[in-house]
Amino acid sequence: MASADRLLVGVIADTHGYLDPELARVFRGVDRILHAGDVGSAAVLEGLACIAPVTAVRGNNDRAASLLDLPELLDLEIGATAVQLVHQVVDARPGPQTRAILFGHSHRAETRWRENILYLNPGAAGRQGFHLQRTVALLSVGRSLDSTIVHLGPKSAGAAQKSRRER
């Protein structure tokens, strides 16, 4: 949970229409949720909005009419910190004040610093794609930026349950 001088942000990407029921627990207490594209369905954004205010960008697979109005790139202020939200990192255009680039697309969770900018990909929270584990991230924003990748479980819970039953 955020303190007076820190904000806690849930970062998610590549849901591809799937809203994991665990997200209510994982994102409990966040000040806002940022979705880095490939949302898949407006229902995902509606479900996330029941947890905290949501801001999203459009991904390359967001072709549903309800998602076409999402911007491709957003420059945001979280507290006093400039953050850019984009689906593909190659489309990022950090300005001189940008401290973090939040992106998705690759389905690979990663956190790296380059030239005093945090590049954070929460991985994929959906069930479509080549990833094996579904992940999201928590970003703590204050005088410093701290991020944590949170594992939600295997991409296909049905496959994991089936393999246990077959043993």
N- to C-terminal distance: 41 Å
Number of strands: 10
Please outline the major beta sheet.
Answer: 5 strands, mixed
Shape: globular
Run of helices and strands: EHEHEEEEEEEEH
* Low-pLDDT runs: 159-167
Q: Which structural class do you get from the secondary structure elements?
A: mainly beta
Count, helices: 3
Read across the widest sheet, the strand sequence of neighbours is: 3-2-1-9-10
Strand content: 35-45%
Helical content class:
10-25%
Overall average pLDDT: 91
Specify Rg, calculated over alpha carbons: 15 Å
Folded structure, characterized:
By secondary structure, this protein is mainly β. 13% of the residues lie in helices and 35% in strands. The chain is built from three helices and ten strands, in the order E-H-E-H-E-E-E-E-E-E-E-E-H. The chain has helices at residues 23-26, 42-49, 157-166, and strands at 7-12, 32-35, 54-56, 73-78, 81-86, 98-102, 110-114, 117-121, 133-141, 145-154. The strands form two sheets. The chain has a five-stranded mixed beta sheet with strand order 3-2-1-9-10, with helices on one face. Helix 2 (42-49) links the parallel strand 2 and strand 3. The longest helix has 10 residues, at 157-166. The protein is globular. 38% of the residues are buried.
What are the salient characteristics of this protein?
167 residues; mainly beta; 5-stranded mixed β-sheet; 3 helices; 13% helix; globular
